[in-house]
Amino acid sequence: MKLVIGLGNPGSKYVGTRHNVGFDVVRELARRYGVGQPQAKFQGEYQDVLIQSEKILLIAPQTFMNRSGESVWQFVRFYQPKPADIVVICDDMNLPTGRLRWRPSGSAGGQKGLNDIIQRLGHQAFSRLRIGVGRPPGRMDVTAWVLGRFCENEKEDMEHAVVRAADSVEKWITEGIESTMVEFNRQVTED
């Protein structure tokens, strides 16, 4: 079984914010493959789906971003996937808005949800998909930026990025991390 974990903050107050793009990708995959509503377990919402005959657990921790590891650790302890069968999807301010970046492992790079997961699991050996949300303008507070909603001129790009991110998760499931990085880490250019 593979675990696809989207990070974000629970509650309607945070829907559509930059910090919740991980939730958006999990929701898109559930729309494509899910039957019924998500279930509650281990301080998270989850849904079992089949993608290309692979059993996948879509997870949205409900512990708030900075404490995502609490929920993730419980799912990992219970299901015992190999580290290579886990992907965490999160926002990244160091990438341009809508840009995707896959990695097979690595540091948290300042992302507090990823950092909490690394601390709780005791390793960095899981895949991660970062989705660019851009940097705050001027001296704007970073927290206000990630908890803010996308500007009108960014919304279409982000909707496209969420669909593309879900497509990339499908490829990761069926073909692995290397071919996923080759296809989805490159900058998409307009024709």
DSSP strand tally: 7
Please give the share of residues in helix.
Answer: 25-40%
**CATH fold type:** Rossmann fold
Order of helices and strands: EHEEEHEEHEHHH
Taken from the alpha-carbon principal axes, the silhouette is: globular
Q: Which CATH top level class fits? A: Alpha Beta
Number of domains: 1
Class by alpha and beta content: alpha/beta
Q: Main sheet: which strands, in order across?
A: 2-3-4-1-5-7-6
Q: Enumerate the spans where pLDDT stays under 50 for 5 or more consecutive residues.
A: none
CATH superfamily: Peptidyl-tRNA hydrolase
> Main β-sheet: number of strands, strand sense, barrel status?
7 strands, mixed
Number of helices: 6
How is the topology of this model organized?
Blueprint: E1 2-6, H1 21-33, E2 39-41, E3 44-51, E4 54-61, H2 68-79, E5 86-92, E6 100-103, H3 112-121, E7 127-132, H4 142-146, H5 152-175, H6 177-184
Parallel strand pairs: 1-4, 1-5, 5-7
Antiparallel strand pairs: 2-3, 3-4, 6-7
